[in-house]
Amino acid sequence: MIETSTSTATETGAVTGRVLALCGGIGGAKLALGLNAVLAERLTVVVNTGDDFEHLGLHISR
Predict the structure, then answer these.
(1) What is the domain extent for residue 52?
(2) CA gap 31, 13 in Å, rounded
């Protein structure tokens, strides 16, 4: 999910303002890396770094 706040469009159609990306997991890291290459300091990323899963019947929470 990506949101922009207080954004305005320029004459060329480019959007200015801050961008907030909500992501997690490997896909989220790749998304954040790509967005950072384009948006640089305009980007804020909120991430979920904790994963809960079960492996061989053992509940693992990190």
Answers:
(1) 2-61
(2) 23
**What is the Cα–Cα distance from 45 to 37, expressed in whole angstroms?**
13
Between CA 61 and CA 21 the distance in angstroms is: 24
Domain total of the chain? 1
Span 12-38, pLDDT tens digits: 767 678 999 998 877 888 999 999 999
Could you list the beta-strand ranges (E) of 1-62. 2-9, 15-24, 43-48, 52-55, 58-61
Read off the pTM.
Answer: 0.57
Where does residue 30 fall: left (phi above 0), alpha (psi -120 to 50 degrees), or beta otherwise? Answer: alpha
Q: Coil, strand or helix: which one is 10?
A: coil
